Amino acid sequence: MYNVLLAGVGGQGTVLASKIIASCAMKKGENAHTAETIGMAQRGGSVVSHVRIGEGCYSPLIPKGSADVIIGFEPGEAVRVLPYLKKGGAVVVSSAAVKPVTDSLSDSGYDGNKMLSYLKEKNIDVTVVDGEKITDELGSAKSLNIALLGAAAKKGIIDISINDIEEYIKTSLKPQFCEINLKALALGASFV
Question: pTM to 2 decimals?
Answer without folding.
Answer: 0.93
